[in-house]
Amino acid sequence: MTQLTNLGISNYDGLTVQFKRALAYGFYGQIGCTWSHALDDISNGGAGEFYNGGTSLTAQVSPNLANNYSNADYDIRHSLVADFVWDTPWKSSNKAMNYAVGGWTLSGKFYFRSGTPFSITDGLLAGELGGNSIGGSMLATYIGSGLSSSCGSGAVSTPCFSSSQFVKSGDETNFGNLARNAIYGPGYADVDTSLYKKFPIGERMYLQLGTSAYNLFNHPNFAAPGHNVAVPGFGLITSTVTPPTSAYGAFQGSAVSGRIAVLTGKFLF
Question: pTM value?
């Protein structure tokens, strides 16, 4: 039996604090912090969410609907975004020295946030309970103790949970009991910077040369760990994630996870 309804529940609470400051000597910066919590019955399948691990449940297959009301696919508890621009004020009475030290601009952007949630599922459970009549992912049955609510980058070498904490896949006799999106994956961090120099050509014309570095520190951001109790690698992180966009744009295959340096030149008049 398939039932469609528009009686879903969605709630969001959030608090954002932002600080902006324009200092002397050409420096301007701002920083913003957000705490939030998003809950719903069913999200949109993680559409547009690059880091949720692809574990979203787009259909409710358990009669226990309470397990579905949980963290939304895009629930990010903590997020920090900061940026600055510094137009250096250095000047010299010496024309040659002024040509060298003047006209520099340094800017940067910083992103730090906590991880997005994912569900622990049993890929064989639907077939065991209903043959081909049940489709979609089904939640696993938790029987252990000490299950952490988050799974950081340490899961690359040490699983953050194990199959012994769950009913063995193939031995299930009931619908899973673990809430949807109960575990949070690794956080995300990125630092981008730009450095430019203006070279005057006449009174109103400039040649601007510079470079932009994306993922300046070449920091890897990790994907969610294996979440299917029926598949090897359960609890281990085996891949990294790429940002939604890069210096190459936002089209298919353009995103890259490593550091990128872009050299630019502009003629301003």
Answer: 0.83
Over the stretch 72-122, which tens digit does the pLDDT of each residue have?
A: 888 999 999 999 999 988 887 888 887 788 889 999 999 999 998 888 888
Contact, 123 vs 176, CB < 8 A?
no
**Burial class of 237 by CB neighbour count within 10 A (0 to 12, 13 to 18, 19+):** buried
Strand-pairing partners, residue 196, are 105, 210
Phi, psi of 222 (to 5 degrees): -95, 150
Q: Alpha-carbon distance 182 to 119, whole Å?
A: 6
In which element (H, E) is residue 33 found? Answer: strand 27-40
How many Cα atoms occupy the beta-carbon half-sphere of 44 within 13 Å? 5
Q: Which of 131, 140, 209 is nearest to 174 (CA)?
A: 140
Give the confidence band of 140 by pLDDT, cuts at 50, 70, 90: confident
Spatial separation of the C-alpha atoms in residues 40 and 197, rounded to whole Å: 49
Report d(CA 151, CA 185) in Å as an integer.
5
